[in-house]
């Protein structure tokens, strides 16, 4: 929900509550004031009636009733509203009446005076209609004012947000944030500029360290491999030979990790400009042939539906991508399991049997994430696959359905 929408909703809620409270408050104030005014008028009229009686004149006031009473009860005047039938309109109308007993010329009189008034229900409906129109006017006016003001006030923020969405540490392009006359936005711009500079420096430092470390490791790895090969040519006991082979295996794994980290560093810096029209179906077909013997050793049944697909991509990276996902099938499909590959113009899907993950799916593409400690891979294959997809702008998604691991790569943005 947008900030403007959220604040507008709160504004409407508060305005509605205030208007409703004001409506009833105004109604009760008006009701009391009108009732007091009517009572004063009735008391004045009652006084005039008593004066006429005292002077022995004939009382001709409308809506006045005079009764003589034999007993003068000690009672307070009665002031109330009532309904009186109107023969002209053939319905009952709202009246206020004042009834009191007074002694005039040694006689007790019960004097009742009344006056018509607009019913409180009509008062409430009228006030409610006025407030409804007012509420609509406030809502419409507030919406228009918020729209035009926010459009101007929030324009720099929204433009800066659009620029930040396209910001990447992999490029040296700086983001020039638009200044604003709002202090909070200016303060935010200053903080963002500092964070971007600091983050880019740290990112490039980390990239340089990774590349330098990988390059520096290549030489000692090559030397150690050469020394181990020379050592293996000398006669030795079986136990020593086993230890030597274990050292070779560990060194080979270290070499693979080193090459994988170097590849990741290059991918994250987007150092692969060799984009060209590539027949990715041929690449997949070649890899399927290469992996056929490997799958046969584990009796993995592979079904492939390969349709002709040509994309603008890096042939080298595409081959690494497909190879890593095929290798993932080989490592994680149980013996005698089933795997399936489908490729067409919309994308490619890799499926293989296997138990569900023993860690969250969100961690699947993290570096060195393994389903079990006995896995002898580098733990970087899926991280590299994801980064290759990022370079080509191919969405890569994972799901687990009906006992199968499914990797889907969409080519829709690059066909």
TrEMBL record:
Alphabetical UniProt keywords: Kinase, Membrane, Phosphoprotein, Transferase, Transmembrane, Transmembrane helix
Keyword ATP-binding belongs to the record: no
EC category name: transferase
TM segment ranges: 12-30, 127-149
Catalytic activity: ATP + protein L-histidine = ADP + protein N-phospho-L-histidine
UniProt-recorded Gene Ontology molecular function terms: phosphorelay sensor kinase activity
Keyword DNA-binding part of the UniProt annotation: no
SMART domains: HisKA (SM00388)
Histidine kinase domain segment(s): 212-415
Name assigned to this protein: histidine kinase
């Amino acid at each position: 929900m947008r900030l403007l929408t959220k604040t507008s909703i709160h504004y409407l809620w508060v305005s509605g509550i205030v208007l409703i409270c004001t409506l009833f408050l105004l109604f009760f104030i008006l009701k009391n004031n009108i009732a007091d005014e009517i009572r004063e008028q009735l008391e004045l009229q009652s006084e005039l009636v008593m004066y006429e009686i005292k002077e022995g004149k004939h009382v001709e006031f409308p809506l006045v009733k005079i009764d003589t009473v034999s007993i003068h009860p000690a009672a307070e005047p009665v002031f109330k509203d009532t309904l009186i039938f109107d023969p002209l309109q053939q319905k009952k109308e709202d009246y206020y009446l004042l009834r009191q007993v007074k002694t005039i010329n040694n006689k007790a009189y019960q004097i009742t005076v009344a006056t018509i008034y607009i019913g409180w229900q009509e008062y409430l409906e009228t006030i409610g209609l006025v407030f409804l129109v007012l509420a609509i006017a406030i809502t419409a006016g507030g919406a228009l004012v918020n729209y035009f003001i926010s459009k101007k006030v929030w324009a720099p923020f929204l433009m800066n947000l659009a620029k930040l969405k396209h910001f990447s540490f992999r490029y040296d392009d700086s983001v020039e944030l638009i200044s604003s006359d709002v202090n909070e936005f200016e303060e935010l711009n200053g903080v963002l500029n500092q964070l971007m500079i600091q983050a880019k420096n740290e990112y490039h430092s980390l990239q340089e360290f990774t590349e330098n470390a990988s390059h520096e490791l290549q030489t000692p790895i090559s030397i150690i491999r050469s020394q181990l090969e020379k050592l293996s040519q000398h006669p030795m006991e079986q136990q020593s030979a086993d230890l030597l082979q274990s050292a070779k295996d560990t060194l080979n794994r270290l070499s693979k990790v080193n090459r994988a980290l170097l590849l990741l560093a290059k991918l994250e810096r987007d150092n692969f400009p060799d984009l060209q029209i590539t027949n990715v179906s041929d690449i997949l077909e070649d890899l399927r042939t290469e992996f056929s013997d490997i799958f046969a050793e584990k009796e993995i049944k592979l079904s492939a539906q390969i349709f002709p697909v040509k994309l603008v991509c890096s042939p080298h990276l595409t081959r690494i991508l497909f190879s890593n996902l095929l290798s993932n099938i080989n490592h994680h499909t149980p013996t005698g399991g089933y795997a399936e590959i489908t490729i067409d113009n919309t994308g490619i899907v890799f499926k293989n049997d296997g138990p569900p993950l023993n860690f969250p799916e969100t961690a699947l593409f993290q570096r060195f994430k393994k389903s079990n400690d006995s896995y002898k891979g580098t733990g970087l294959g899926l991280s590299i696959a994801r980064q290759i997809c990022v370079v080509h702008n191919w969405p890569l998604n994972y799901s687990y359905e009906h006992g199968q691991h499914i990797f889907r790569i969409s080519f829709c943005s690059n066909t």
